[in-house]
Amino acid sequence: MMQAVRRFGAARRRAASDGGARFSVAGLQARFAALLRRDRDSVPIRDWTSTSSSRPARLPGFDQALVALALALLGFGLVMVYSASIALPDNPKSAHFTSTWFLGRHAVALGVALVAAVIAVQVPIALWEKAAPWLFVASLALLVVVLVPFIGREVKGARRWIPLGVMNFQPSELAKLAIAMYAADYMVRKMEIKENFWRAVTPMAAALAVTGVLLLLEPDMGAFIVIAAIAMGILFLGGVNGRMFLLISAVLAGSFVLMVTLSEYRRERIFAYLDPWDERYAQGKAYQLTHSLIAFGRGEFFGQGLGSSVEKLHYLPEAHTDFLLAVIGEELGFVGVAAVICAFFWLARRIFHIGRQAIALDRVFAGLMAQGIGIWMGGQAFINMGVNLGVLPTKGLTLPLMSYGGSAIVMNLVALAIVVRVDIENRQLMRGGRA
């Protein structure tokens, strides 16, 4: 159309310059009509009635941004685990490993985790709700089994793993998911008595106490802190009376203080955390913390470059597990650390949004369970980052989705798959269908 108009204008100007001798008005109109027909035949005319603006907006089947972020964290974690563990065979203590041994094991764990996640996302939330009490009982049974000699594997004085051949399974990881489901199911079943302190809180407190005792026998205080935070968070979000919640919080805080007071090695960790550069602790309880801080210092703003960490060269123990963030800080600097922090903040925020959406749709169990998983992911990431940065005392907690660890990666992805299932059912209800 525009081409025809331009050609018509040129023809009219030529006619004016010729004084109208060669072109009449009728001739020009006929020529313009011919040009317009030619352009119309050569260029398909768009049907403006069928544009996307006139169609109803399509609602995606699941939260694609959440899945994309989780996969990005997994991929980034795989790269950083390889970077942090590539030099381990140079140490005589790890000479039997190859430079790709941890990378291969982590890749196998990712494969198993992705398969488990695909299976978990197919299971309706109604079935998870029915299975919640039994899953919690199974997790308690496994926490007992891991303490049995010749079954549970002991590493550096801690008995936390059950060997399965392909990988070692850590029952405390299953307990985190189980407590999120059990607490959500408990709040739904006890909704009518939540204003009665003893009837509402005592059974949940007993379940938490049994879990805590079993975890402290391993010992694994870090996992107990995360599990207690999940249970307390779900009780609070489920509507337990504020005074009751404060009383429970005070009891838990007192219990942690008592455990630290009665345990000499936990007291030493607290003292080392308060003054890591003291010569009494710098080569002892604060050794990991001091070298983690040195790694962050070397990284400055943009880092030393991927693969250029010095602290991972046998100075910083467990660099590929608990202190992976320190390697990220040294190699990618403040920019890399800030990106990881923002990613986990957005991940937890999005999971909480899905949980609130489920509660608004009158799906209380699904909503509370999703928010419990959000507390797990966000809380454990916060503790791990705090330990790496010297903000919190040293605890043996991995960075979710990123640190080396088979059962942790599997349970992280299964938990996120369940959140995606909650989101899928939310969207089905919003379309007018059934969950």
Describe the secondary structure blueprint for this structure.
Layout: H1 2-17, H2 25-42, H3 64-85, H4 101-120, H5 125-145, E1 153-155, E2 158-163, E3 168-169, H6 171-189, H7 197-217, H8 221-237, H9 242-262, H10 264-274, H11 287-299, H12 324-360, H13 364-388, H14 406-430
Antiparallel strand pairs: 1-2, 2-3
Helix pairs in contact: 1-2, 3-4, 3-12, 4-14, 5-6, 6-7, 6-8, 6-13, 6-14, 7-8, 8-9, 8-13, 9-10, 11-12, 12-13, 12-14, 13-14
Description:
The chain is mostly helical. 66% of the residues lie in helices and 3% in strands. The protein has helices at 2-17, 25-42, 64-85, 101-120, 125-145, 171-189, 197-217, 221-237, 242-262, 264-274, 287-299, 324-360, 364-388, 406-430; strands at 153-155, 158-163, 168-169. It has a three-stranded antiparallel beta sheet with strand order 1-2-3. The two termini are 51 Å apart.
